[in-house]
Write a structure and sequence with these properties.
The protein has one domain (2-136). Helices cover 74% and strands 4% of the residues. The chain has helices at 2-28, 38-61, 66-91, 101-107, 109-133; strands spanning 136-138, 144-146. α1 (2-28) packs antiparallel against α2 (38-61) and α1 (2-28) packs antiparallel against α5 (109-133). The longest helix has 27 residues, at 2-28. The protein is elongated. Bound molecules: protoporphyrin IX containing FE. Protoporphyrin IX containing FE binds at residues 16, 19-20, 23, 37, 40-41, 44-45, 48, 79, 82-83, 86, 110-111, 114, 117-118.
Length: 147
């Protein structure tokens, strides 16, 4: 089960890398249409959340340290933040659907939070691999330590 967890963590990081790629695909698509960001939308709303959830279940079933289980569900939480950033940015538009300096200041955070999703997913993969190899331990009542 530890190997399954590591594989799921690897797939999650792969999906996050693809998500950046799909963001660029959407940005370069001409003319801009509703479908320009379709791949980005599906990966962000479905693929990454499902992989985060499955990896978390695999971490819990394989009795990973609690801190690592929490870290594994974090990408899902950060995707919720991604959607909230877009929602708040939308609230600050000019009323006709056009951006304003205020809405752009908020919307730009979507890219920064995307980097956080990438960083956390990378940390999860590294620790899931150590856990699969048996080199990650947690003393009772303590957070995990790398041996
Ligand atoms: C891990 C990284 C990322 C995640 C998880 C993510 C997630 C999401 C999600 C869930 C949506 C909403 C989709 C919908 O409403 O159907 C979205 C929309 C969007 N994202 Fe990202 N995103 C990430 C990175 C980026 C980056 C790096 C950029 C660009 C620099 C970007 C640009 C956009 C844009 C422009 C939209 C709006 C698309 C539209 O109008 O339909 N995203 N993203």
């Amino acid at each position: 089960m530890r190997r399954v967890y590591a594989v799921l963590a690897g797939l999650m990081l792969l999906a996050v890398v693809a998500q950046f790629y799909f963001a660029a695909v959407g940005a370069f698509d001409k003319p801009q249409e509703d479908s320009s960001f379709a791949l980005h939308s599906v990966t962000g709303m479905m693929v990454i959340p499902v992989l985060s959830l499955l990896a978390t279940v695999a971490a819990a079933v394989s009795r990973a340290p609690g801190r690592l289980i929490g870290l594994t569900i974090l990408p899902l939480g950060l995707v919720v933040v991604q959607v909230l950033i877009i929602a708040v940015g939308g609230l600050l538009d000019d009323g006709a659907g056009n951006t304003t300096p205020g809405s752009l200041a908020i919307l730009g955070l979507h890219a920064i939070n995307g980097l956080a999703v990438m960083a956390v997913s990378g940390m999860v993969l590294r620790q899931a691999r150590l856990f699969a190899k048996g080199s990650l331990t947690a003393a009772p009542g303590e957070s995990a330590r790398v041996r």
